Amino acid sequence: MTPRTLIVIAVAAACTMAGLLWLSRYSADLRAARVLHAALEDGVSAPVRTEGFTAVREASGWQEWRTETDQNGVGAKTVTRGPGRTVTLLDDGDRVWRLDAGGATSLQPSPRRVEWVLLGRNYRIRAAENDEIAGQPATGIALESKRTGRRAEVLWIEAGHSLILGRWTYDAHGHLVAQTEVDDVRSQGYAESRERLGAALARLPKAPTETPLTDAQFSERSGFAPLRPTHVPRGYREVGLYARTCPRGRVYAELVYFDGLRVMSIFERPGGRGGRGQGRGWRHGLGAQAETAEPVLVDEGQAKTVRVRRGNVRVFVTADLTQEEILRVVNSIP
Amino acid sequence: MRPSDSTAVVARAKAGDVQAFETLFRDHHVRVHNLAYSILGDRTEAEDVTQRAFVKAWEELPRLREVAAFAGWLNRIAANLARDVARSRAARKVPANHSEPTGDKADQGLLAEERDAQVHRAIGSLPEHQREVVIMYHLQGVPVQEVAEQLGIAQGTVLSRLARGREALRRKLAPYVEQ
Amino acid sequence: MNAKRCDETRELLADFDAGLLDERRADEVTAHAAECEACGAELAALKRTAALLDATEPARPSRDLWPGVAQKLAPRQPSRTWWGIPRPAQMRLALQVATIVLLILALTVILPLHWDQGPAVSLPHAVDDDAALFGHWYAQASLTSGLGNVQALSLIAATQPPEAAP
Question: Of A31, B174, C62, C158, which has the highest C-beta tally within 10 A?
Fold first, then answer.
């Protein structure tokens, strides 16, 4: 065989190999996308009770809680038990409520439908390693950021019932920051599920829906106009402007940006210093710094918060981005 | 075993070193056997599952990403195999062959054996993550810090899983703990 | 005895026994358990459970299981191609050339698409009481996305927002 023939064979073999690998990968990714879509669009196909754990990485280390969830495709009730506390949440499809002895407190809107087009623009849905969780076969699905090239989330879904059995969350640097996993699954009858959830759902009061404000509406309410960055990371789009009121009654602007999976929030308020105090930084032995117009990092977890001053307005950008990306946003605020 | 030694041994086993794998076997087989026994309640089946779990671990070891998570990964393999056996046994409607005490044991010994068997069964009914820390900490006497290092989790997580495990076992073992 | 107090204490007993509570809560549980017979008995039962577990012998195999494992360990083989075609010397050379071709393609086409990281930056740290408040609101905003991890964010969302700085 001549060298030229050998090279032709090599190139042909390479192309065929690449083509076959791509085809096999593509069909696996397509199946993964279908499983994810079914799980998030339709929810569980039958009432089910799951028990498991949720672990979140905080500055002091991993914190773990037990969770019990009853879901039936209409609503979901989650009881979370941690060291010294138990929290019960109820999602009626419209709002998420906290239930306690005093009744139901509306916390925020229920999770929206997934914006598949926006998600697809910024993330690749890839087949990941399958596993067996709680005795159930689990299809692994990874969401890879097109911007960073890294995995942002990996989910494990029992495809037969569209049940999410596990979930690992990564930050912008690719570090694992949260883990959720089910270790016991029990099917429920519809009657039993209605009894568990229906009574709680029926007792909920009406709650107002939160809608974004226009700049004019916000200025009228708060007395200042929000500042917008001229640069946002690739793939993020503005969702809306909201007025947030802290327990002391002060109004903050929150500009929310979204890329299909991750949120970037820009909080603003005029005046104040907020220097020394009992903020999280004290646990790290950090001292207070005189506030300047230069950006400083004031919080670091799954999301980072960078503070900067613009005139008499204090601006905080909170996002799951690298320091370079968040700095580019901060520096573009006029 | 110090964690640095352990991860080096796992790495060598991953590369195909059978002696290193035997070291891992010696260090982990009692725990794996306990996990299987707690699910199956039958020593013969537990021994069989233990052997199969290590053989499977050997085959899949090249695919293990986090070398430091070897113990937890091995536990998962064993628990899945044990559950498969329990399921196929239930499908065939074959009762578990629980170990019978020998005729010449004293009454105290019989009671203690029955009590131990009940404890193992109760542990077997726990969720996986609670089961493995209860076995390691209480049955094998592994200190909290070492349990955390072997499973690749925080000490607080170990304590939290122990608390939940004990809470569940207190109810399941009520005849033995209530006065 | 206050039934609500008993219910609250009952939920904390296992964590108390494991040493997970902070000093204030631990003192409260100790004080209540000393006064309340039912809670005191429950705590004692938890301790007896732990003692019972400690006293239980681990189940040991009846024989050395290693020989049975060792004889089933197949030596690690270099992986065959997934379509199962064996590799004569010529094919091996062709595959090596193909790998080089693919590597060149990867370096010239795929890698530059991810090459927009910019220079490494390290921002100075500062303390700010508002940071905890924003972390809380950020978590709530994240939760409303269709892919929000309800379990992971539920504890943050369920607690009161922290006080803001004056």
Answer: C158
Q: What is the pLDDT of residues A69-80, one digit of tens each?
A: 888 777 788 888
CA distance C6 to chain A (A): 14
**Residue A326 counted as domain residue:** yes
Residue B3 pLDDT grade (very low, low, confident, very high; cuts 50, 70, 90): very low
A100 and A41, same domain (yes or no): yes
What phi-psi label fits residue A135: left (phi over 0), alpha (psi between -120 and 50 degrees) or beta? left
- What pLDDT was estimated at residue A95? 78
Same domain, A254 and A180: no
Better pLDDT: A279 or A97: A97
Q: How far apart are CA A289 and CA C73, in angstroms?
A: 61
Same domain, A115 and A190: yes
**What CATH number should be reported for the domain holding residue A230?**
3.30.200.100
CATH number of B3-177: 1.10.1740.10
Instruction: Work out the mean pLDDT of chain B and round it to a whole number.
Output: 83
pLDDT per residue over C69-111, tens digit each? 999 988 765 544 444 444 555 667 777 778 888 888 777 766 6
Give the pLDDT confidence of A174-227 residue by residue, as tens digits: 888 888 888 888 877 666 666 666 666 666 666 555 678 888 888 888 888 899
- CB-CB contact of B58 with B11 (8 Å): no
Residues of A in contact with B76 (CB under 8 A): 132
Q: Inform me whether the pLDDT recorded for B135 exceeds 90.
A: yes
> Which chain A residues are closer than 8 Å to C149 by Cβ?
167, 169, 178, 180
A-B contacts (CB, under 8 Å): 40
Among C138, C140, C143, which would you mutate to test the A interface (most chain A Cβ atoms within 10 Å of its Cβ)?
C138
For residues A161 and A310, membership in a common domain is answered with: no
Ordered strands of the A103-109 beta sheet: A103-109, A95-100, A85-91, A76-82, A61-71, A48-58, A176-187, A163-170, A151-158, A136-145, A123-133
User: What is the reported pTM?
Assistant: 0.63
Q: At A192, which amino acid appears?
A: E
Instruction: Tell me if residue A66 falls in helix, strand or coil.
Output: strand
Tell me whether residues A51 and B128 touch, CB distance under 8 A: no
Task: Please indicate, yes or no, if residue A95 is contained in any of the structural domains.
Answer: yes
Name the pairing type of β-strands A313-319 and A263-270. Answer: antiparallel
Choosing from A170, A202, A234, the residue where a domain stops is A202
Domain boundaries, position A250:
215-331
Q: How many whole angstroms separate alpha carbon B41 and alpha carbon C59? A: 10
Structural domain count of chain A: 2
Residue B53, pLDDT score: 96
Chain B neighbors (3+ CB pairs < 8 Å) = A, C
